[in-house]
Amino acid sequence: MDGDGDHKGAKKKRAVFLSRDVVMLRQLHRTQSRKASPMVLLKDIFEETQDKDRFVGDTMFWKYFEDINTSRIYHTNSVEYRNLKVMCFETVFYIILLAAVSIYAYQLQSKDVFEARIEQLNYWQGCDTEGNCRIQSVEDLGSYWKWMQGELVPLGFTNDLGAPKVANIATVFPNSGFDLAQSPRYIGTQRSNILLGTMRMRQVRVQKNVGCTVSKLFSHVYPECYATFSPERESKVAFETRFSPTYLRSAFEWKDEETTMQLGVAGKHANYAGAGFMVDLPVNSSHASDMLYDLYKWNWVDRLSRAVVLEITTLNINVNVIANTNIIFEFSPNGAVTATVKTNAMRIFLFTPSLQSGAALLSFLNLIALFVIFAIHTVWVGWLMYKTCFNYLGQSPGAYIKTASIWTRVILPLRILYQFFRYGWNIADLMILCCFYAHMGFRISTYISITSEPNLAPDVIGHPEVFMPIAKMVQNLSYGNNVLSILAITCWVKLFKYLCMSSYFRLLVRILEKCAARLLIFCWMLMFVFFGFAVAFRVGLGNIDQNFSSIQKSFLVLFFLLIDGYEVDEQWFEPGKEQLVPLVFVFYIALMYFVLLNIFIAIVLDTYSLAARQNAVDASKKNPMIVFVRTYYHWMKGHSLVEDESEEHMKSEDLSISLELLPGLVRRKWVEKKREMQLVANQNFAGMILFADEDKRTDKSLSDWALPSSQKDFMENMTNPKAPKPVSALASPNHLIQQKVAYF
Question: Where are the domains of the chain?
Fold first, then answer.
C-alpha cells in the first residue's frame, strides 16, 4: 500500500514527443554550439613532431586552456608541459608587473595635491564658504578693470611687514654700492603659499573686419566689425599710441611663444595661443596698481581684445606642491566678459629626480624598478611576436625576406601585426607598452625642460622679478598622469587573461573575449546615432540651453542622458511653442532606451548562452595548471609522475621499429594517419613537414567497375588481353617502408 501511495503521489514528468524535426534541431544545436578545439585536432601533431619548441608561446594554449591534454603534462618533454611552464612564469611575472604599476601610481598621487589645488582655485576666485566667488562679478570691461585693481592686487600682494628671511635672493646693481635683498612673497593669511616669480598677463587680439562682414544697411554708420578669435584672425600689429608711457611700450607689442614662455589655453569661447601682447606686474603693490591704472587709461584692452590670460605660479611650502593658475578673461564680440580660473598642481619631486629620503626617494626607486620590469616585458612581447611570425611564415623573418618579392616585403609587417593582434590580449600588451613609454617620455621631457630653462636654474628659480615658465612642465606631468591612468586600468583589465586558468572565472573571461569584437562594432554604429542626435539637439536647443550650444557639448551631454536622465523644460509645452524639440527628444528616448540599449543587452546575453554551452566545466577533468605545478614540483625533487617510468628512461632505438616489420594493415593505417596529420599541419602551420609523402607507386590497380575510356582501348583489350593487377588495398609506398616508427 505504501508503495502504491508513493507511486501515486510522485510527480509525473512531462512527456516529450520526440519527432524527427525535434531530434534534428537538438542535434544541430549541439553541433553548432560545440566545435572541435584546435587542441584536439593538433594533439597527434604535438606528440609526433620533433620540433616541439616551435609551439612554445603559441596563443592557442591561452585561447583553449581548458582543452589542454592533462595526461601529456606529466611528460616533461611534451609540448603541453613546455607551454604551461612558460605560461606559469608569465603569470608570476605579470603579477609582479601589476603590483609595481599599482605601487608606482599610488606613490605619485597624494591628497595634498588635491587640497592645494582647491585652495588656490578658491583663493584666486575669491570664493567664500558658501561658494560665492567675487570673480563672477566681472561682466563687462568696467567690472574687469575694477577687479584687476580692487581684487587682484590685494590677492597678489599680502601686506606682511614681518616676513622672515628664508632665502638669499638679491638684485645686484653694478653701478651702485648696495644690493636690494628680496624676501619670499607670501600670499594669503596662512603664510603657506609663496609666489614664484612674477605675475604675467597676456592679451590676445583679433584683426579688424576679418572673419565678419558688416551689413550693407549699417555699413555707412558702423564700417568696422570684430569677429570671434581664431588663429587666422589673430592680430600681431602693435597698437600703442603716440603718448603712451615709455615703460608700457612693450605691453603694446606682439611677442611669440618663445618670448612669452607660455602655453595656449582653452577658454569657453575659443582656444587661445601662447603668443600675444605681454606685460609683467611689478613686485611692489603700489607699482602694480599704478601699472594697471595706466593700462586702463591707455586702452590696453579695447574692442579688438578677445582674451586676457593671467598666469600665476605658487609653492605650498608645507606639502611641497607647486600650483600653476591661469585666470582667463574672455571678451566676446557682443560685449560680455567671462571669467574662468584653471589650476593644475603637482608634487615638487616630479620636476627633478630626487634622492632625498621619504616619498621622493621611493618614487624615484619605483620609477627605476618599473623601467627594468617593462624592459623585460618589452623583450617578452617581442619574443611572442617573433614566435607568431615564425609559425605564420614557417621560417625566420630574415630568411623569408631574402626570398620574398618587393611587394611581399612591404606588406610583411602588416601581415605579421595582423596575425599577432588576432589574439585580443596582445592588443592589451601593446597598449600597456605604449602607455608606459609615453608616460616615461613625459617624465623625461620634464627633466630636460627643467635643466635647459635658464629661468629655472637653481640660483634663479623663485626670484620675484623673473617669470617662472612652470606651465610647460606641469602640462607634461598632467599628460603623463593621464597616460598613467590608462596604463593602470589596462593592466588590471589584462588580469582577466590569467583568470581563465581558474574554472570559477573562465566563463566570465570567455564572455568578455567574445563580446569585445561584437560590442566594438555596435559602438561604432552607436557613435553615428549619437552624432546625428547631437546635430539635432544643437539645432533645436542650442539657442536656449548652454549644454547644447555646440555639437561637441551636445555629443557629450547625450551620453550622460542615458545614465542621469534629463529634466524636461516646461517651456517646451507653453502655448505657441513649436513641438519639434519634444518630438526629437521622444524619438531619442524611444531609439536609445527601447532599441539600442536592448540590443546591447541582447549581444551580451547571446554571447553568454553560447559561451555557457561551449565552455561547460567538466568536473572530472583536472586543471592543467595545477597538474603542471605538481609535475614541476616533483621534477625539481627528481621524481617523475609518468605511470610507466620505463618509457622515460629507455633509449630511442628501444622505442622505435622499422615500418617494413609491421603488418600491411598497420603500415597502411600508419601512412593514412601521417597524411592526415600533414594535412592538418599544412592548414595551421606554414613550413611544417611531418610526413614527406610523395606517392610514386608505378603499379596501377584496376577495379571491377573500371570501364574502357574509348572504343580503341576496348578493341586492344579484345585482341591483346592483359591480366589486370590485383587491388593493392594493404600496399604502402616503397620509399616509406624503410622509415622507422618511434614512440616518444
Answer: 132-350, 503-622, 650-744
> pLDDT digit string (tens) for 485-511?
999 999 999 999 998 888 888 888 888
Cell reading at 108: 605619485
Q: What is the DSSP string of 243-259?
A: T--GGGGGGGSEE-HHH
Least Cα distance to 498 among 484, 513, 483 occurs for 513
Residues 371 and 373: their CA atoms lie apart, in Å, by 5
Alpha-carbon distance of 391 to 54, in angstroms, equals 7
Distances (CA, A) of 319 to 132, 181, 189, 473: 27, 26, 17, 19
* Contact call for residues 67 and 39 (beta carbons, < 8 A): yes
Q: How far apart are CA 199 and CA 283, in angstroms?
A: 9
Provide the CA 305 distance to its chain's centre, in angstroms: 40
Rounded CA-CA distance 229/209 in Å is: 12
pTM of structure: 0.77
- Bridge partners, residue 345, by sequence: 323
CB distance 295 to 251 below 8 Å: yes
Tell me if 200 sits within 8 A of 274, measured CB to CB.
Answer: no
Contact 617, 506 (CB under 8 A): yes
Strand 185-187, strand 193-195: pairing: antiparallel
- What is the structure's pLDDT at 252? 94
Q: What cell was used for 333?
A: 564680440
